[in-house]
Amino acid sequence: APSVLGANSDLVLSVANVVGSGGRPMIYRWSVRRGDGAQKRRQTADNTSLPANLLAYVASVNTSSITVPSQLIPVETTIVFGVSVINFAGEVSSVTEHVVRKLAIDIPSITLISNAPVVRATSPIVVQGVVADIPSSLQSADVDYYWTVVPPLP
Q1: Phi, psi of 82 (to 5 degrees)
Q2: What predicted TM-score, i.e. pTM, was given to this entire model?
Q3: How far apart are CA 37 and CA 76, in angstroms?
Q4: Are the CB atoms for 33 and 46 separated by under 8 Å?
């Protein structure tokens, strides 16, 4: 999952690979709180400044994945999303957290589509670009790469 979101990007988090013993169903409990990258990740939750609709939406999801619509996440905010899993015996896992910062600007993205029947992770991909103007709101001109593998288009 990305650690930075653009202004109009939805956030998708998934723990679909977590399965119960014997394939038994699991219950997923999602949470959200404000965060600050400079502070320890496991600080006391401060949800007073998060939108009520974001808190309600996250609390309502009990599936293995969550898609948080962009409009629910405030811009220029660092937020910590967490998930814990409850097994058939009622045992609760520790919370796994993911920190994400939402920017006030869009982040460019590139979609690569291949006609090859199989594309391997070792297949070379070259992407070139030039940054013409770096907004003053950015801390640096570093480039982060995130990969998402999606099913082929019909």
Answers
A1: -130, 160
A2: 0.67
A3: 12
A4: yes
Q: Residue 52: which H helix or E strand, with range?
A: helix 52-60
**H or E element in which residue 53 lies:** helix 52-60
Q: Which of these, 71, 9, 72, 61, lies nearest to 30 by C-alpha position?
A: 61
If you ran DSSP here, which 8-state letter would residue 92 be given?
B
Q: Which of 14-23, 59-68, 115-124 has the lowest mean pLDDT?
A: 115-124
Question: Which string of b and e fits 71-108 if b means at least 16 CB within 10 Å?
Answer: ebbeeebbbbbbbbbbeeeeeeeeeebbbbbbbeeeee
Q: What is the mean pLDDT of residues 68-78?
A: 92
Give me the phi and psi of 53, to 5 degrees please. Answer: -70, -30
Mean of all residue pLDDT scores within the chain: 78
Which residue is listed with tokens 């070379």? 124
What pLDDT, on the 0 to 100 scale, is given for residue 46? Answer: 56
